[in-house]
Design brief:
The protein is an alpha/beta fold. Helix content is 42%, strand content 17%.
Length: 279
């Protein structure tokens, strides 16, 4: 598969959204909404994503991601006959990360810029007992039924691309389907809107979606604004045990880590090093 399309940080989000709108229109023509809802109703019961993040521990949501617009290809295509090292193979990565101590999994399902797919989520969930998050650019109820039909236990909502009313509608639909919503924010304004919409799990993205710049101080600046009744997740740019300890002491319940693990020769060993490192 080719490298993700090159794009300037300033316009990559709009390009991704345009691609997702095209894909959604095609999906709706391929599988009727009523049929998709039947598949969602027949999916395995949801696992408790919130409970996994609320443990008194260093709760890491380990992310399975083949590529990204900012880093390009993170892991090569898997070739079963070759036993490719450093390959993107959800069937091997998911149980390995679970055994290394992950609290939950996140799977990128966006195909054009991240080279993912819902089939990756289905595979990962089938070989792991952990709750699994659908990580994508979601804005339509149809996509939530897709997620549940594929076995997702939770889903990402990016406040930067959704109105308060859209956030509320999708959070409520998620509850009806038994899935948890991780509402991702980057600014105080986005956080306020996510809370107004009823978010119970808030993720602070340390990566600016307009510039790709990563700053862990984004999490530090926003944690005091997240109510005690919400689960707080710090996302992006986390690479050391010291960073996790600092953010946990600040009040974060969980940490979403993707590129650091996917860039490692052995992602499971990289996770073990984070969880077992010196405080």
């Amino acid at each position: 598969m080719p490298t993700p399309p090159a794009a300037k940080p300033a316009d990559v989000l709009e390009r991704i959204l345009a691609a997702r709108r095209r894909a959604l229109a095609q999906a709706k023509q391929t599988v009727r909404a009523a049929k998709l809802e039947e598949r969602a109703a027949a999916a395995p019961p949801p696992r408790d994503f919130a409970a996994a993040l609320g443990r008194d521990a260093l709760n890491v949501i380990a992310e399975l991601k083949k590529a990204s617009p900012s880093c390009g290809v993170l892991r090569s295509a898997y070739q079963p006959e070759a036993g490719t090292p450093r390959a993107y193979n959800p069937a091997a990565l998911a149980p390995a990360l679970e055994s290394a101590g992950a609290a939950a999994l996140s799977v990128l399902t966006e195909p054009e810029f991240f080279q993912g797919g819902l089939e990756d989520l289905q595979v990962a969930r089938g070989v792991s007992s952990l709750p699994v998050l659908r990580k994508d650019f979601l804005f339509d109820p149809y996509q939530l039924f897709e997620a549940r039909a594929a076995g997702a236990d939770a889903f990402l909502l990016i406040a930067a691309i959704l109105s308060t009313a859209e956030l509320r509608r999708l959070i409520q639909l998620g509850k009806q389907l038994g899935m948890a919503a991780l509402a991702e924010v980057h600014t105080a304004e986005e956080l306020d809107r996510a809370l107004e919409a009823g978010a119970e799990i808030v993720g602070v993205n340390n990566r600016n979606l307009k510039t790709f710049a990563v700053n862990l101080e984004t999490s530090v600046a926003l944690i005091e604004r997240i109510p005690d009744g919400c689960l707080a997740v710090s996302e992006s740019g986390l690479r050391t045990r010291a960073e996790l300890d600092r953010l946990r002491a600040a009040g974060f319940d969980a940490f979403l880590i993707g590129e650091h693990l996917m860039q490692a020769a052995d992602p499971a060993q990289a996770l073990r090093a984070l969880l077992g490192g010196e405080r």
